[in-house]
Amino acid sequence: MSETVASVSALIVKTLLANPKVPRDINGSSKIVEDLAFDSLAVMNFVMEIEDTLDVSVPLDRLADIRTIDDLAACIVSLKQAS
Amino acid sequence: MSIFSKYEGLASALASVTAGGGRNPFDVVIEKPISSTVGLIEGRETLLFGTNNYLGLSQSPAAINAAVEAAKAYGVGTTGSRIANGTQGLHRQLEERLSAFFRRKHCMVFSTGYQANLGTISALAGKDDYLLLDADSHASIYDGSRLGHAQVIRFRHNDADDLHKRLRRLEGTPGAKLVVVEGIYSMMGDVVPMAEFAAVKRETGAWLLADEAHSVGVMGKHGRGVAEADGVEDDVDFVVGTFSKSLGTVGGYCVSNHDGLDLIRLCSRPYMFTASLPPEVIAATMAALTELENHPELRIRLMDNARRLHAGLQAAGLRTGPQASPVVSVILDDVAVAVAFWNRLLDLGVYVNLSLPPATPDQHPLLRTSVMATHTPAEIDKAVNVFATVAREMGLSHAA
């Protein structure tokens, strides 16, 4: 398994920055809802994009505990390791 | 700090919708239905194009008479839940009628369609199971997933290949996999490619639940929904539906050939801990079901009307979904424009649903219409003309 929290976090930031509405100064500690102004649907749709890039499924109940980009990256890495 | 302070964002969003004297779209009152297609709103006769009353059966004389007679014979309520004193002979009769209509062995009736999804999904998918939901699922499906304890995974809307990919990722994991799709999606009126989902279900061994709330009475030779229309009823393990659309009353159900459905009666909290349907509603529902069975021409008229409305709105230069179905939505880009458009339609005597993000797909505001078998061609043309007038007033006509 080659992904690390840092590499997944960097990939998430890169994916987010492809959206022109996302603030340019985001990093791993940015809060997904507060700093990116995403509503619940936008969060779920954005996670779906990341899922496809990394070939992993993130169950919705795991999203409830995720606040920052690094949290999401850590969750994805743990799911990849579990599979 | 007020207990309501967390809703300040909601309050300011509502204030922006009503700024400039616009109506609160969540506070429109239909003072009195005059017929299935016309209601009194703000004292004016208004064309109803947003009631989901697809066959017009909320005003069926046969259903009304059945309700009156049942109320006289049985009273107006059961004062109990299905597992206590709330199961009467009429509940069993209705379940038998629905089983026969769907040609399935078992039926459970719930007090609303919302509860039917909540109660079925939360009970079927347990702690060690997986629920796979279409991304555009109705709130009742998402809420059902939260009431249960299964792991929940979304797949891309109406995309059976995407579902297949996500099921493949779960290969080798223990637990049942329950896939949930809708027959017709309520916001855009798009129809599920049920045969494609049935093929994925067969290949992967998943279970398939279809919410046919908007498609029963609308699609299929006998009105049993998209699964019937696509010839894949045997692949659909559970059909969930509602009485509050094509049957014109209120309540919900789940039908299945699996004997285990009866066990769900013992563990589905939205079934067990609420009052059962009152006798007059059951009687009206059974009468409406008879109307639905005896009048297939209603479905033909409904789809003719859907095509007329869809084509008319497109000819007026408005953007709609690709398919003509009984739900036809006009897609707009800007919430303020959608709110102003919706207000003007009501001023001119046409009621539709204003649907705003995040309750809509792709963050677009919608003017959501639903058509009825009982709309006359003249009523549809009038509604289209009003849409065209408002579009011109607002500079929104792009074509034709």
Automatic annotation (TrEMBL), chain A:
Domain Carrier: 3-80
Domain of life: Bacteria
Stored Pfam families: PP-binding
Name of the protein in its database record: Acyl carrier protein
Gene designation per UniProt: acpP2
From TrEMBL, chain B:
GO molecular function, one term: pyridoxal phosphate binding
Family annotation (InterPro entries): Aminotrans_II_pyridoxalP_BS, Aminotransferase_I/II_large, AON_synthase_class-II, PyrdxlP-dep_Trfase, PyrdxlP-dep_Trfase_major, PyrdxlP-dep_Trfase_small
Cofactor: pyridoxal 5'-phosphate
Domain Aminotransferase class I/classII large: 46-386
Superkingdom to which the source organism belongs: Bacteria
Statement: the UniProt record of this protein carries the keyword Transferase: yes
Stored Pfam families: Aminotran_1_2
Keyword annotations of the record: Pyridoxal phosphate, Transferase
Family statement: Belongs to the class-II pyridoxal-phosphate-dependent aminotransferase family.
The name this protein goes by in its record: 8-amino-7-oxononanoate synthase
Origin organism lineage: Bacteria, Pseudomonadati, Pseudomonadota, Alphaproteobacteria, Acetobacterales
